[in-house]
What we know:
It contains four helices and four strands. It is an alpha+beta fold. Strands 1, 2, 3 and 4 form a four-stranded antiparallel beta sheet that branches. Strand 2 and strand 3 (135-143) form a beta hairpin. The radius of gyration is 36 Å and the shape is rod-shaped.
Amino acid sequence: MYGEMAQLRAKARALRDDADGLRSRASALVAQADGLSSAGKAADAVRRRVQESGTELGKKAQLLDEAADALDAHAKAVDAVKAQIAEAERIARDLWNQAAHLAANVVNAVKDVASNAVNGFMQVIGAAGSGEPDHVRVSVHELGGQQVSDGQVASAKSFIAQVPSPPPSGSKDWVDVRGAAIRNGVG
């Protein structure tokens, strides 16, 4: 989603090749000028001017190397961000799927249970319909026959309300989905 870094790295290699080419050309020019058999002020001026040009070409080559380094550093940073997004997606997608499954499939069951069997998942709503004195009527959330706390159901429903559908794979929005899961107590 954020571009192919191989192209950026290829551009960095091309810049380094160009820099090497400039240094090589500068060295060849300086060697040619130094190899002039002529003597005198004019020949010395040519040598001096070619030496200055060689130095300038070396500076330009250094700038190309620095640009290549910057491109490589950027590609590395983008790859690191893409890896963070992939990790957030892996975790958040699983949490989103679990919460969506819970929110869509939880049932609220009303049961008569023994008073001493009431647990933290159950909410007592009154006397048992059977009239047995040691029984009470409770409301409890269940998913696949397993009791689920009111808090888990509320957290899942709140999370799904905030993130009704998952973002596309590779989207930076997965980082936000992970944050929404944490804020809602999911996962």
